[in-house]
Specification:
mainly alpha, about 110 residues, about 60% helix
Length: about 110
């Protein structure tokens, strides 16, 4: 059950991220994607992969599939390098975005402000 929830959440956020990415790529010039899946986490595709790597062994009840978890550090390294490039390109806009949206874990927003 927990594995199914992980995989479902990853699929939803990942798909929303792909939709918003396509919208931003089809417009004129590079623009920071901040809507749909990118409003939930900064890296929705990696969120999809990581939740799949964690969820699949839980769904399949297979200890052999736990080897998938070893792929997670590779994605975390990739995220680090991508964020450096995004920070160089978008500068202050990306800093503000990072303050409001979690990297791969959604941030809980304080409603009192």
């Amino acid at each position: 059950m927990i594995g199914s929830i992980f995989m479902f959440l990853g699929l939803v956020v990942g798909c929303l991220g792909r939709i918003s990415r396509g919208i931003y790529l089809s417009k004129n010039g590079p623009k920071l994607a901040t809507k749909w899946g990118h409003a939930i986490v900064r890296h929705p595709s990696y969120f999809l992969y990581i939740t799949g790597f964690v969820g699949l062994p839980l769904v399949a009840f297979s200890p052999y599939l736990l080897i998938l978890i070893f792929g997670v550090p590779g994605y975390l390294i990739t995220i680090k390098h991508e964020e450096e490039g995004l920070l160089d390109y978008f500068d202050e806009e990306y800093i503000e975005y990072c303050e409001n949206v979690g990297k791969i874990i959604p941030k809980i927003k304080n409603r009192e402000s």
